[in-house]
Design a protein that fits this description.
mainly alpha, membrane, two-stranded antiparallel ribbon, 1% strand
Length: 471
């Protein structure tokens, strides 16, 4: 008989019950957290209302009380208050102002915005409807992370970022799609690698149509499929499987975007043009504004030169960081026999967040799943959350101090601590993620099998091959 690990049915059932309890607990805790998150943002909403439906209190307290949200702000100016279907009408002016039903986000986010606006007459209604629409994605993410990583999922379910950003913008659906792709690849191992990867590619492509960033994870995923996930077997490059993953991702993106592009090309194209025209300014929280901008003079020509430099340097450095992450993954593959595609994906995200000209506070929600799934020192995670709070809270207090004519030196220092602390830790995470092992609850029941699923086996781990049976 084969020399295989023997696990009793009773022990297996106990583990299943334990995992289920952790997942349910994480989901319930997440429910309480998103309720707190809504109450936090709702402090900016409510009567009396202006004729436009805007809460009169919004412009008074949004920065001083740190309850600003893009959801409430964009009730006006994007056709939501007029219940215009997105992208079909409208466009963008030469100076970057969106008109009609055009919005600055990919089509599925625009569609969610429109759905959230159905039946609303005020920005308070829109905030509530949007919160009800988005909350299930936060709960789903908490459940999936707990099934994969156990109690570490509480970092998502109960962490400060979810309170600060759950209803700041439309981030929760895109995070859920990325986590769903990881879940398919790591948990549903009874299906073939190709089948899992194709399903994961669909989720990543859907995420791309929400907020773009999951699309970059398709590259390490197809490399993983190309190289295979069985280090003990003879290596055979699965070129067909890799191409199928790429074709699935591209086809899904085209299928989702094509109807919008055909129905209203100008409105659809406006979202892309808006992001291309966006500049690195005081609202973007990037190293470009706080690090490079002071080197240029105060004149209009100096500002123009600065923006040209950023427009060229930012995408180049982002692409180079992607290439470096994939190369580090290849080095890891040569040492350990498996390509760490989730770790490489996390590193690519770090490169994007570090070098992109815009680093909105809510982007922290993108990063949290990687801090849950990968073994990163908790001290660094706490340090990142503190730096993030300096941005998520400090930047609005900074805007309030500037608007009120107060001395804003203290608030500016807090913001800079957040910007540079976060940037330094992203650089550290970039390298840690590629070589990190997973936080696993051992759901596969076989020593080392969790690492096989995640594609990140430690170089010093040896897994003995199963004994062969007689013919």
């Amino acid at each position: 008989m084969p020399n295989r690990p023997v696990v009793s049915d009773a022990a297996s059932r106990r583990r299943d019950v334990g995992r289920s309890m952790i997942a349910v607990t994480s989901t319930l805790v997440c429910g309480i957290t998103v309720l707190i998150a809504y109450v936090n943002k709702a402090r900016c909403a409510g009567g009396p209302f202006e004729e436009s439906g805007r809460s009169a209190i919004f412009d008074v307290v949004k920065d001083s009380n740190v309850c600003y949200s893009d959801i409430q702000y964009l009730w006006l100016g994007r056709g939501i208050d007029e219940h215009l279907f997105p992208y079909i009408t409208g466009g963008i002016t030469p100076d970057g102002q969106l008109t009609g039903g055009a919005v600055e986000y990919p089509v599925l986010s625009g569609l969610l915005m429109w759905i959230g606006g159905i039946g609303t007459r005020t920005d308070a209604d829109f905030l509530l409807h949007s919160a009800l629409l988005l909350a299930p994605f936060a709960l789903l993410t908490a459940y999936l992370l707990a099934r994969m990583a156990g109690p570490a999922a509480l970092l998502w379910a109960a962490g400060p970022p979810l309170v600060l950003y759950a209803f700041h913008n439309w981030e929760l659906p895109v995070v859920a799609t990325a986590v769903a792709a990881f879940y398919v690849m790591t948990v549903l191992t009874r299906y073939s690698l190709r089948d899992r990867a194709i399903a994961a590619a669909v989720f990543l492509a859907i995420g791309f149509c929400f907020k773009l960033y999951p699309g970059i994870f398709v590259l390490p995923l197809l490399i993983y499929v190309l190289l295979g996930e069985h280090p003990l077997r003879e290596k055979r490059f699965d070129v067909r499987g890799a191409l199928m993953v790429a074709a699935t991702a591209i086809g899904t993106v085209v299928a989702i975007n094509l109807p919008f592009a055909l129905a209203g090309y100008d409105g659809w194209r406006a979202s892309i043009t808006f992001q291309q025209l966006r500049q690195a300014d005081i609202t973007t929280n990037s190293i470009w504004y706080w690090g490079l901008r002071p080197l240029f003079g105060p004149t209009r020509d100096a500002e123009s030169a600065f923006q040209h430099v950023v427009s060229a340097a930012s995408p180049i450095l982002v692409v180079l960081s992607f290439a470096l992450a994939c190369w580090l993954g290849w080095r890891r593959y040569q040492m350990a026999g498996l390509y760490p595609w989730i770790g490489v994906s996390g590193a690519m995200l770090c490169g994007f967040l570090l070098f992109h000209k815009v680093h909105s506070p809510q982007y922290t929600l993108w990063l949290i799943p990687f801090l849950v799934l990968l073994e990163v020192p908790w001290g660094l995670i706490v340090a990142y959350l503190l730096a993030d709070a300096c941005i998520g809270i400090g930047v609005f207090r900074y805007f309030y101090a500037l608007g009120a004519g107060h001395n804003a030196e203290f608030e500016q220092n807090i913001v800079q601590i957040g910007v540079w602390g976060r940037a330094a830790l992203l650089a550290v995470f970039f390298f840690l993620f590629v070589g990190a092992r997973e936080r696993s609850v051992g759901r596969l029941g076989v020593p080392g099998a969790e690492s096989l699923a995640l594609g990140s086996v430690s170089a010093d781990r040896h897994i003995a091959p199963p004994a062969r049976t007689a013919a």
